[in-house]
Amino acid sequence: MLSDDSRKELANILRGDVIERHNCYLTAARNYLSKSFGTSKAVEKNFEQQSPIKEKQKEYLIIFIEQNQLWINDFAQRNYLTEGGEAKVYFNKTAQCVVKLNDAIYYNTWLDYLNSILIHNLFFQRTRYTLIGFLLKETTLFCGIRTTIYSFRSTNRPVRSKNIFVIQWLREYKKG
User: Fold this and answer.
1) What is the DSSP letter of 159?
2) Where are the domains of the chain?
3) Distance of alpha carbon 158 from its chain centroid, rounded?
């Protein structure tokens, strides 16, 4: 169940209001776009009609990225795990986290994508996403987010994930 503060924050996200509470790059990037572009009230369809808006938001994001030095320059792809339609997934063995590179392909706009991450963080606080930066490959902009998917106690039991399959797979990966 959401607290009153979380409900207010959700309402602010959905209305496109500036979020004051968090001091992180994810919220800052979202607020930066929100000041110039309203939150989309449309259902995720008509992607072609939204394409010019998304491209304009990309231009704004690049300015924000440069102002805040958020380019990912040293991204090691040797820890590549898999990819789906929406993200390329990497495992950072040192930090014990998963990094996802997402180009927001399934979202009408970049603002919709950033809003979806903030909403995820409200509802799923144990698997919160943190924005680590952006990567530009040719003309495609990727947002880099990370989440800690597990940690081990001295008993080697998982603490943060309910997905036993993933934990077992990562144990094997960690050995190799």
Assistant:
1) S
2) 4-71+79-175
3) 23
